[in-house]
Amino acid sequence: MNENHNDKEYTEGIAVRGGFLGKLDNFWYHHKWVTLIAGFFIIVGVICTAQMCNKEADDLTVVYAGRNNLTAAEVENISAVLEAVAPKDFDGDGRKSIAVSNYNILSEEQIKDLRTETDADGNSKHVDNSYYSSQYSTYNNYLKTGESSILFVEEWEYESLASSGILVRLDEVLDTVPESAFSDYGIRLGDTDLYEEYGVMKLLPRDTVICIMHVVVGNSGDEEYFEREKEMFRAIVTYESEDKTTEG
User: Fold this and answer.
1) How confident is the model at residue 16 (pLDDT cuts 50, 70, 90)?
2) In which element (H, E) is residue 161 found?
3) DSSP 3-state assignment of 212?
4) Quick one: which of 3, 138, 123 has its CA closest to 65?
């Protein structure tokens, strides 16, 4: 009896695991940290994907490409002005949302001029050619997608676009072309009431040219979407200040 009792005490509390649970326990012992790290990234990925899916789409996007290097906050402020003057909620989701795609580009001449500038100690400024080359390449590739048609660009870039034949004539978009128009295809930002009315728009150079292009791919290739962009373009270049509206 005592011998059996001792055997019982000796084996009591010992868990014998086998099969699936045993393998799981062994896997956790050897791969615990890898599993935890992988799980973390999976959770982050799921959250990011859900946020992207839930993000409301913008009505349309306007492009700025020029010498002023805008901060994210400045881009948001310009976007807010464009939303304020947008003629309507284009996609009918209950809000007007105009995004601004921002590129800091310089011409070869502007880069040369930048190199001649000096700081307080008389040292020449460093110019990062690779940065400006990358910015222009990214901007140029984006234009080829046709995702955006309304452009705010430097005069030298405007001339390049006009010579390429992708810009739309002002008289094909506007009922009346203003006398102050820069050319058949563009209007200087500084010659618009939008520039005078909203201080935020002075974040962009006064000589920035506003134009609209048309390619047969992306959003620009969709007739209904391109009509939206033409409406927005008209709202920008024909905007009248509150004083003029009151006088009228």
Assistant:
1) very low
2) helix 155-164
3) strand
4) 138
